Amino acid sequence: MKESLGPPLEWSPEGGCSRRAFIRNMTVGWGSLALLAGISAAGLMRFLLPNVLYEPPMSFKAGLPEEYPEGVTPIPGRNVFIVREGKSFHAISSICTHLRCQVTHVRGGFQCPCHGSQFDVQGNVKKGAAPKPLDWYEVALAENGEIRVNMKRRVRPGSRAVLMT
Amino acid sequence: MGRKVWSLREAVSRLPLNVRDSIFRQGIPTTDHERAEAIFGNFFLHLHPVKVHRNTLRVGYTLGLGLISLYLFVMLAGSGILLMFYYVPSTDLAYRSMKDLEYVVSFGKVLRNIHRWAAHAMVISVFFHMCRVFYTGAYKAPREFNWVIGLSLLLLTLFLSFTGYLLPWDQLAFWAITVGTSIASYIPWIGEKLRYLLLGGNVVGQSALLRFYVFHCVVLPLLMGLLIGVHFWRIRKDGGLSRPGGS
Fold this sequence. Notes:
- The complex is a heterodimer.
- Chain A is an alpha+beta fold.
- In chain A, 18% of the residues lie in helices and 29% in strands.
- In chain A, strand 2 (71-75) and strand 3 (80-85) form a beta hairpin.
- Chain B has helices spanning 8-23, 32-40, 59-62, 65-84, 94-103, 108-135, 144-166, 171-184, 191-199, 206-237.
- Chain B has ten helices and no strands.
- Helices cover 67% and strands 0% of the residues of chain B.
- The radius of gyration of chain B is 24 Å and the shape is globular.
- Chain B has one domain (64-237): Cytochrome Bc1 Complex, Chain C (Up-down Bundle), CATH 1.20.810.
- The A-B interface holds A 45, 48-50, 53-55, 98-101, 114 and B 175, 178-179, 182-183, 196-197, 200-203, 205-207.
């Protein structure tokens, strides 16, 4: 097929292609290649984002309220402290807001071993590198009477749930 | 050339010579031109330039830091492949297989220590290599692009170091990667997503270990090999090793 439009050919009229056809072919060719590369890259990214996580569930039952002593109790493997004050309870994250190390309960609050951040009993930053206070999570009673901690739902620091009558 | 018909006896007696000629196309070189051809006709030797400037051979100028880095990488690849025969990238077995390598496997302790110390040395030698290039002005035109490739190689070295850090699966490894990936999550907009992608989840667990293993043993070394090739090729194309008094 011979293109009649466009400027005259600059080289090799026989067997060559017109400028217009050349540009069109290059655009289509490289364009499809770029599209394919883009789709593959997007697909690769999606593939690498797992759909199912084999991690401890974010919402879990943590025993009966009566079993908790007054004060701060760490929950092993759950990255959370459950704090009992009489009949009311709250849950504070044990993950430092600086770089996610485990804070430990010390007199007067919490302390991070990695970079020395210190928090008061409310989880507010007293000292150190932590930019934000510790998270507070929702606590409620499950159907069977146990405490349920839901780490997917953060609550306002200072909010407590009365879980005993 | 006419085709000669050989007797079996002749053919057998000429076999070693035939094999040699099939590998080394030209015979023993006698002229400078043939010597040059022998160098760049050989895959392993063609990395070397046919001619070098006298000043290029002065060790005191480059201190051989680039080559030292290469040799360390080769040592790391070799010892790393051997370690892979025993190491299992699972949270249950990683620490135990590391301990096996330390105490049970023959020469395991030597291999692991070669791998470990060569890794530390490589970070240091790559860093000093970069300093040398900087202080001798070897990053200047026409070598600017090779400086950029060198920067990528430095980053790859650091990523290899970082991904290898997790594999023993001890407390140091766990918290170092917890902290390291949390630093990555401070990147605006994409930080949290990047951390999720790196770890394959929200916590440093089995998928993180497997991901770091694949990056450490396959992805990053392949990229490294590729870029090392480009780096060396560019050295030649940009006029050879930089040298005092050369242009």
